Amino acid sequence: MDVLMDVGERYGVAIVEDAAHAAGCEWGGKKIGNVGDIACFSLQGVNPGGKPVAGGEGGILCTNNREFYERALAFSQLHRPGVTREFTNPVYRGLDAEVLGFKLRPHPLAIAVALVSLKTLPYRMERAIENREKLFNGLKNIPGFEPVHSYPKARWHGLYGGWQIMIHPEELGGLSPEKIKAALQAEGVPVRGHGWASGHPGEHLRTIFTKGFDLWGRGRGPLDPLHEFMGFTAFQAL
After folding, report:
1. In terms of Cα–Cα distance, which of 144, 201, 190 is closest to 163?
2. What is the pTM of this model?
3. CATH number of the domain that 96 lies in?
4. 3-state per-residue secondary structure call for the chain
5. Which of 116, 213, 225, 227 is 20 to 30 A from residue 66's alpha carbon, by CA?
6. Which among 65, 83, 78, 70 has a CA at the least distance from the CA of 105?
7. ω into residue 48 within 30 of 0, thus cis?
8. First vs last C-alpha separation in the chain
9. pLDDT tens sequence across 30-72
């Protein structure tokens, strides 16, 4: 994050954090949501298996930048009570209560559920971190298994995605990850597939990156293959 923020400040680029799973996490003593220019949190699912702060569905956008805040209001807050009174930018003050016509707010019931989830977040974080440290300390002297490392400035909550362990087959007689996983599962250890997720090819191999997707017709889509995107064909088609 330090490097990204430095790039953003030097070139005037806003840094948007995908903080979907990061409610409660910290970087350099700051809660996520206060580090980048904008942070986006997800409220999907229910506890304990959903997002750290969960309300069924919905999301939250956080920013300390007044201009970005007003842009978000204008874009997404159709008929929000008092929305026009919040505008200080003359460009937006001419809008009425329909602003730009989109209503992207979560349902109030989802927010109410999420508020209850938020109250329990500190307790759940502390227990998850405590249990993870017990597991990692028990594994650190076992050949072939290496717990993942956190950046010194990062405080992770341990509530999403499991506790990742790196395997070194060369220290285990060349055993494959599949055999190691099967052996652990046979002993009752709740482990899942290796890699990002079982069956996941990797972000750079997703169809939207490798082939693009003609979402709006006439060759227009949010993402084109790299060679086309770098050639700006997607923008020319618009």
Report:
1. 190
2. 0.78
3. 3.40.640.10
4. CHHHHHHHHHHCCCCEEECCCCCCCEECCEECCCCCCEEEEECEECCCCCCCCCCECCEEEEECCHHHHHHHHHHHECCCCCHHHHCCCHHHHCCCCCCCCCECCCCHHHHHHHHHHHHHHHHHHHHHHHHHHHHHHHHCCCCCEEECCCCCCEECCCCCCCCCEEECHHHHCCCCHHHHHHHHHHCCCCCCCCCCCCCCCCHHHCHHHHCCCCCCECCECCCCCHHHHHCCHHHHHC
5. 116
6. 78
7. yes
8. 33
9. 999 999 999 999 999 988 888 999 999 999 999 999 999 999 9
| Strands, sheet with 59-63, edge to edge from the N-terminal-most edge strand | 16-18, 38-42, 59-63
Q: Are 172 and 144 in contact (CB under 8 A)?
A: yes
Number of other residues whose CB lies within 10 A of the CB of residue 232: 10
The C-alpha atoms of residue 57 and residue 35 are separated, in whole angstroms, by 24
The two tokens of residue 147 are: 């717990």
Position 194 in a domain: no
Residue 159 CB neighbours (<10 A): 24
**Alpha carbon distance 229, 200 (integer Å):** 24
Same domain assignment for residues 215 and 132: no
Range of the domain at 221: 203-237
Give the pair of three-digit tokens for residue 94. 């001419």
Enumerate residue ranges in the chain where pLDDT < 50: 226-238
